[in-house]
Automatic annotation (TrEMBL), chains A, B:
Lineage: Bacteria, Pseudomonadati, Bacteroidota, Flavobacteriia, Flavobacteriales
UniProt keyword Magnesium present: yes
Pathway: Amino-acid biosynthesis; L-leucine biosynthesis; L-leucine from 3-methyl-2-oxobutanoate: step 3/4
Cofactor: how bound: Binds 1 Mg(2+) or Mn(2+) ion per subunit.
Keyword Oxidoreductase assigned: yes
Protein name: 3-isopropylmalate dehydrogenase
Cofactor(s) needed by this chain: Mg(2+); Mn(2+)
Binding locations of substrate: 97, 107, 135, 221
Length: 352, 352
């Protein structure tokens, strides 16, 4: 079969890790006899430099038409440390999420056997963890009204949610729970926020359609602690945009490295796959960044296209690279050798 | 000397832990020849049950006039799981923070030698950690406009910050940093939020008065992960209300137990001291809750009154109880015995 894949390398280490994911996809294409047609487009700081905007029209068009989108990372310290910058790399990603209505971000968090020792958490705490975090991605304070008063002395961010926005992701999360351990935890701050109370009420309503799933609620402050204290208590976690951003980063410590976590962002018509790690500008161009999260994003992409065997082939290759310790420095355990970004990519491709 | 202390036991385990803190204060009074005059007032679910409101006028009045406030906890599952409740226990605490303008919440996070084994984190990660979290407590999304549309289908929370609100807590945080390791990390989400950009800009301005303090910035998603990955990189952490709520709960895992963390909430005229843990309703009345966070709150209270020796005496007693393992079940290590809430309180008082 022939598939068009929009590729957005982005900033920092984005291009180098995305290249390794493409190697893995190429290997899959060869073995399983597919054609993957890559259309590379710009987003982020690199797009600002070239076109003046973080998300050129061309990028939106190509992404809309593609069968799936493979994305690296955006972000650049030049903009982070300039609070007055009006145009910023991240706007590109946020705008893309909105243009394509990518409302559901799923982040699978697993403890990899070979990486247990890499986690700051004790082995007995994390071993066996398997959580799927469902983060609402196109609403909330990310997309609310933002204002700075004329005199620059008062800033404002609005956070809004509608019942419909909550319902659509709640259904996806409950369906996922049905295929897993049948437990769903809604994370909110319902003791303080009106939006959280709407989430709680709405999700409790949706739950009536999924009587086999056990629904419980947790405040975000406690939940962020609980995911570190006892991650095994969670199965499917559902939450709004900002809380999901924070919790899924914390959950990274379970996987042993943020360099291992991939995510899918699903809309009605489009889907985007990306590593959770950011653009990691300090490592840019050094061939030291861990490409596994990007490679695992490619695996999620294949799954989304219905190519389960192909997705599994990538997963197996990743497990093998962990087995053999053919990994970048961040995953190395004491005295073990490590290798480069591109060599990890080569190994994965060869193994497939 | 004679001091008036407003005591708000509150809900759940609030009353029983606060009682132990009072025992410690009574012991201090005896040894150091002070008089502590307690004025007990209501707040939270218990106040709703008795008076219909979570924060009666009488409570505000007594708190305003007291030399310091000792607070337990508020919260009750009857309200948490009813998203339509118009009156809630937490409103009492939020309103009190606002009435007394308690804008600066400080949460010291330390790894206690005897509790290293209790943390889900590996010993080498946490040992030696000493962080002070400065959380803005009277602004942000907690106190912004809240709205639910007439048809109940759209909810809204507004988050607002002014330069003045940021400046006053920034000065306190920088001053604290000067007396510590001279490092301040501002935690925000400046790549997305307008309020965060105002924080970044304003704090960078304030930093000019504290040239000896090293200022750096971190996004909240990354920061929440970093505090677990490598807590020792932090000295003073400064952040806005909601992020501070989340981060300080996560930081609890460093102390080995949320039952060990105390906090001060400082305003221009008043100061309140409370354990970080909540009302823990499951444990209410069972004499099993860990009273040490409340006892340590009493120590912070004494420090605030300028009674440093007295504060140290409580600290030493707490260390001793950890030494001897005279603690509640949550702090117990394998096969060790444990004791009750009130026995821990008795031991601390005796030791003082
Ligand atoms: C880059 C940033 C805007 C983004 C977010 O906050 O959503 C990132 O942290 C993520 O989680 O994808
Ligand atoms: C009880 C609740 C409103 C409160 C908060 O969110 O501030 C609590 O979690 C805290 O941290 O003191």
């Amino acid at each position: 079969m022939k598939y068009t894949i929009a590729v957005i390398p982005g900033d920092g280490i984005g291009p180098e890790v995305t290249n390794q994911a493409k190697k893995a996809l190429d290997a899959v294409a060869e073995v399983y006899d597919h054609i993957f047609l890559y259309k590379e487009v710009q987003m982020g700081a690199c797009a600002i430099d070239k076109t003046g905007v973080p998300l050129p029209e061309e990028t939106i068009k190509v992404c809309k038409e593609a069968d799936a989108i493979l994305f690296g990372a955006v972000g650049d310290p030049r903009f982070d440390n300039d609070p007055t910058a009006k145009i910023r790399p991240e706007q590109g990603l946020l705008q893309l999420r909105q243009e394509l209505d990518l409302f559901c971000n799923v982040r699978p968090v697993k403890a990899y056997h070979h990486l247990l020792k890499n986690s700051p958490l004790k082995k007995e705490i994390i071993s066996g963890t398997d959580v799927a975090i469902f983060r609402e991605l196109s609403g909330g304070i990310y997309f609310g009204r933002k204002e700075l008063s004329k005199d620059g002395k008062v800033a404002f961010d609005g956070c809004q949610y509608s019942v419909d926005e909550i319902i659509r992701i709640a259904h996806l999360a409950f369906k996922a729970a049905q295929n897993r351990k049948k437990k769903l935890t809604l994370i909110d701050k319902a003791n303080v926020l009106e939006t959280s109370r709407l989430w709680r009420k709405t999700v409790a309503e949706v739950a009536k359609d999924y009587k086999d799933v056990d629904l419980n609620f947790m405040f975000v402050d406690n939940a962020t602690m609980q995911i570190v204290l006892n991650p095994k208590q969670f199965d499917v976690v559902l939450t709004e945009n900002l809380f999901g951003d924070i919790i899924s980063d914390v959950a990274c410590v379970i996987g042993g490295s943020i360099g291992m976590l991939a995510s899918s962002s699903i809309g009605k018509e489009n889907a985007l796959f990306e590593p959770i790690h950011g653009s990691y500008p300090q490592a840019k161009g050094k061939d030291i960044a861990n490409p596994l999260a990007s490679i695992l994003s490619a695996s999620l992409l294949l799954e989304h296209l219905g190519l389960q065997d192909e997705a599994d082939a990538i997963q197996r290759a990743v497990e093998k690279s962990l087995d053999l310790g053919i990994t970048t420095k961040d995953l190395r355990s004491k005295n073990q050798t490590f290798t480069t970004t591109s060599k990890v990519g080569d190994f994965i491709a060869d193994y497939i």
